[in-house]
């Protein structure tokens, strides 16, 4: 036994030392972080599956719960706002109001799930963080993978609903949905990286995020129209500020993709140059994601001690 230990020690002594922690530097550090995540991609897949299984553990309906909540919200908004408040009734009502609302809800649910669950991803995996070294980025990324799974299911339901309503989107319209999804993923991932790291040091962040998300829902045209916003704020700086919200742009993109009944620009106006706004916001989001990942890498050194 002693000889085996000596042989093992001799072999280990010949191996080069490899740093296990993150490396500094904006360019090299980013490259090494990406390399580390790639090397642990199998673990990332396991974490995504664990995230999905733990969410519906011991549940009879299982993954159906990923549909029940947004569908329940859809019923509430369609009945309360569409019928009781008259948004879907009369000559000025919104046609196919259910498709309109569900399009926006699908986008918002993706953003809220990534940001909300991503904020607590490091703290919730404190046991792993304290025991072994692995790229800490895999925990927010696992939340993103889980949220995407639910998102794909909801998009498929939305697509089926458009066929049932008799107004399916054309393939070129679906490009708007791809653009909106990419925009949400970039910005939500940026927030998830930054907030999950800060939440380790300041646990109140998770509660603050819940409140912000509650208000944030009403800052995007999920249950109201862009035309109403335009008539209320009257253009200018406030309109530019409203369109600076990436969730707003993603919601409008999904409306443009799936809400075929609202294609008449005279009756249901859209912001001018929506595509340009989308591209600019995506590029700014990529920069924000990079900076937030570097902030995450800077703060992760003391995760184990703080948890």
The number of helical runs is 15
The radius of gyration computed from the alpha-carbon positions, rounded to a whole number of angstroms, is: 23 Å
Mean pLDDT: 84
Strand percent estimate:
under 5%
Give a description of the structure.
The chain is mainly α and 307 residues long. It has one domain. The protein is 74% helix and 0% strand. The chain contains 15 helices and no strands. The two termini are 38 Å apart. The model has no long low-confidence stretch (mean pLDDT 84).
Observed structural traits:
307 residues, mainly alpha, 15 helices, 74% helix
Question: Topology of this structure?
Answer:
Blueprint: H1 2-14, H2 26-39, H3 41-55, H4 65-84, H5 97-119, H6 121-124, H7 126-131, H8 138-165, H9 171-201, H10 204-216, H11 226-233, H12 236-243, H13 246-258, H14 274-299, H15 303-306
Helix pairs in contact: 2-14, 3-8, 4-5, 5-8, 5-9, 5-10, 5-13, 9-13, 9-14, 13-14
Question: In short, what is this structure?
Answer:
The chain is mostly helical and 307 residues long.
């Amino acid at each position: 036994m002693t000889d085996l230990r000596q042989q093992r020690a001799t072999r280990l002594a010949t191996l080069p030392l490899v740093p296990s922690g993150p490396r500094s530097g904006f360019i090299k550090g980013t490259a090494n972080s990406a390399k580390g995540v790639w090397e642990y991609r199998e673990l990332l897949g396991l974490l995504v599956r664990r995230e999905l299984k733990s969410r519906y553990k011991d549940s009879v309906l299982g993954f159906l719960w990923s549909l029940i909540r947004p569908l329940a919200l859809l019923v509430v908004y369609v009945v309360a706002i569409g019928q009781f408040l008259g948004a879907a009734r009369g000559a000025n009502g919104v046609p196919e109001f259910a498709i309109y609302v569900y399009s926006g809800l699908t986008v918002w649910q993706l953003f809220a799930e990534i940001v909300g669950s991503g904020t607590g991803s490091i703290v919730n995996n404190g046991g792993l963080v304290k025991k072994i070294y692995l790229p800490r980025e895999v925990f927010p990324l696992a939340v993103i993978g889980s949220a995407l799974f639910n998102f794909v299911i909801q998009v498929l339901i939305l697509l089926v609903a458009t066929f049932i309503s008799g107004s399916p989107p054309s393939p070129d319209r679906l490009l708007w949905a791809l653009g909106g999804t990419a925009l949400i993923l970039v910005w939500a991932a940026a927030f998830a990286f930054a907030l999950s790291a800060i939440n380790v040091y300041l646990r109140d962040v998770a509660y603050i995020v819940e409140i912000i998300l509650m208000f944030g829902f009403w800052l995007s045209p999920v249950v109201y129209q862009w035309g109403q916003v335009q008539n209320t704020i009257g253009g200018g700086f406030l309109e530019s500020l409203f369109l600076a919200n990436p969730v707003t742009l993603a919601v409008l993109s999904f409306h443009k993709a799936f809400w075929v009944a609202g294609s008449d620009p005279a009756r249901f106006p859209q912001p001018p140059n929506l595509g340009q706004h989308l591209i600019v916001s995506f590029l700014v989001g990529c920069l924000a994601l990079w900076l937030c990942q570097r902030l995450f890498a800077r703060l992760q050194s003391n995760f184990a001690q703080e948890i």
